[in-house]
Structures are given as structure tokens and as C-alpha cells.
């Protein structure tokens, strides 16, 4: 039982706020994603419920809605139109974001879900 208290304490200390934190994608569709500086990140801004981010090379922007019950709806998203390597992954990334219905948090991790199914895992950037 004491171990659980330590886990909860760690999670509380390392938890980051949903809005205002830059989140780095580390898993998409059950597959690990190697974090790369400036790629596959999102930030939910508290002001105006806006989302900003970067895919493989394109900047993303859009709206989001959330409530106190961990629901999360993102989109529609707009993106710049540059072509670069990794466009398939970027397409999967944006489709995943627009399919999100809920989120959960585990310490410094943000888990995005679609109707109860884990779609992506993000890690808070320092």
C-alpha cells in the first residue's frame, strides 16, 4: 500500500497542466515514435482554446474544447502546405488529433483516446 502512495506522489509532482504545456509525441497508433526536436508537437493554449503544433514539417493550428471530465475535441485543424519526408506520418498525426474524444494524464504523460481506445501518447517537454 505504501508503494501506491509513492506512485501518486510522483505522478502529482511530475504532472503538467494540459493547457500551456508543449507536448511531444512518443507513441502513435501503438507504435513508438522517436522524439525529434521541433516535430510532432502540440500545445493547447489556455487563451481562446486554440491549439498550435508541428507535424513532420508543417505548422498546425485549430480549436479545441474540453471540460472537467477529461473530454477533448480537437479541430478542425489547418496546416501549412509544405512537402517533406514523413508526410504519411503527419497525415496520421493530424487525423489522430481530429479523432480524439478524451484524454488522460499519467505524471508527465498525456494520453489521447478516441472512444476509449488509446490513440497517442505525448510527453511534456521541459
- CATH domain fold name: Lipocalin
State the major sheet: 9 strands, antiparallel
The number of E-state strands comes to: 9
> Secondary-structure element sequence?
HEEEEEEHEEE
The rounded Rg comes to 15 Å
CATH classification, class level: Mainly Beta
Mean of the pLDDT scores?
89
State the low-pLDDT regions, or none: none
* Helical run tally: 2
How large is the share of residues in beta strands? 35-45%
Overall tally of domains:
1
Commentary on this structure:
- This is Heat shock protein.
- This protein is an alpha+beta fold and 126 residues long.
- It has one domain (2-124): Lipocalin (Beta Barrel).
- It is built from 2 helices and 9 strands, in the order αββββββαβββ.
- The chain starts with a helix and ends with a strand.
Pick out its properties.
43% strand, Lipocalin, 126 residues, alpha+beta
List strands and helices in order, with pairings:
Layout: H1 2-14, E1 22-28, E2 31-32, E3 41-45, E4 50-54, E5 59-66, E6 72-79, H2 87-99, E7 102-106, E8 109-114, E9 117-124
Antiparallel strand pairs: 1-2, 1-3, 1-9, 3-4, 4-5, 5-6, 7-8, 8-9
Amino acid at each position: 500500500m505504501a508503494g501506491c502512495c509513492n506512485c501518486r506522489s510522483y505522478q502529482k509532482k511530475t504532472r503538467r497542466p494540459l493547457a500551456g504545456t508543449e507536448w511531444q509525441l512518443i507513441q502513435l497508433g501503438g507504435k513508438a515514435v522517436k522524439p525529434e526536436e521541433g516535430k510532432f508537437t502540440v500545445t493547447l493554449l489556455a487563451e481562446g482554446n486554440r491549439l498550435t503544433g508541428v507535424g513532420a514539417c508543417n505548422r498546425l493550428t485549430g480549436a479545441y474544447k474540453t471540460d472537467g471530465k477529461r473530454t477533448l475535441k480537437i479541430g478542425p485543424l489547418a496546416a501549412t502546405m509544405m512537402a517533406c519526408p514523413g508526410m504519411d506520418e503527419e497525415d496520421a498525426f493530424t487525423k489522430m488529433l481530429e479523432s480524439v474524444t478524451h484524454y488522460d494524464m499519467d505524471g508527465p504523460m498525456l494520453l489521447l483516446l478516441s472512444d476509449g481506445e488509446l490513440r497517442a501518447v505525448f510527453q511534456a517537454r521541459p
